[in-house]
Amino acid sequence: MPPTNPARRQALTDAAIELLASSGVHGLTHRAVEKAADLPPGTASNYFRTREALLMAAAERIAELHHADTDRAVKQPATLVDLLTESLLTAATTLRNRYLAIFELQLEAARRPALASALAGLQDTASLVTAGHHEELGLDIPREKIPAMIALYGGALFTLVSAPPEHVSRNVVQNMVEVIVYGCVQPA
């Protein structure tokens, strides 16, 4: 049975996220995570027996943080364009490392079926959470359109996170969001 110290587990997963962002998936080792979290040798393997378990825990932590941020954001009255603009801008700037890490994990999942399965489960949860937020905001977006909107959001996020930071501005992000929400051609 893995140890149950939630603060230590969180310190390990947060360190794993930072390592994924700075060193990529190949830089993520139990020892590197322990060092980054300033914890004794052997701690990471006590919590996460395998590297794959460590990768999955990092993905789960990213999803947890993302959903918490989204929960807070929908409490503020805003249009969908404003909400998505703020979300993407924050993700591509303030939270850039978190999203660099998830993209590393998504690429690694192409070679690791267990990680792919875990990420698919997180994607399903994201669709349900997003649908709930849309209902809270009174948005009239059909549930069957939500996966496409999430995919477009993810593509925009990848473009912004992988761009040089100085190329990311509110105007650039808002233009992307308007295309996501309204399409490329708006009716006259």
Describe this structure as you would to a colleague.
With 188 residues, the protein is mainly α. It is built from nine helices and no strands.
Q: What structural class do the secondary elements suggest?
A: mainly alpha
Based on CA atoms alone, the radius of gyration comes out at 18 Å
* Assembly level: single chain
Regions with little confidence, pLDDT below 50 for 5+ residues: none
Number of strands: 0
Name the overall outline: elongated
> How many angstroms separate the termini?
62 Å
Strand content: under 5%
What's the average pLDDT?
A: 88
Q: If helices are DSSP runs of H or I spanning 4 or more residues, what is the number of helices? A: 9
Summarize the helix and strand pattern as letters: HHHHHHHHH
Helix percent band: over 70%
Topology:
Elements: H1 6-23, H2 30-37, H3 43-47, H4 51-73, H5 80-92, H6 96-109, H7 113-137, H8 146-162, H9 170-182
Helix pairs in contact: 1-2, 1-4, 1-6, 4-6, 4-7, 5-8, 5-9, 6-7, 6-8, 8-9
Features:
mainly alpha; 188 residues; single chain; 9 helices
Concise overview:
This protein is mainly alpha-helical. Helices cover 72% and strands 0% of the residues. The chain has helices at 6-23, 30-37, 43-47, 51-73, 80-92, 96-109, 113-137, 146-162, 170-182.
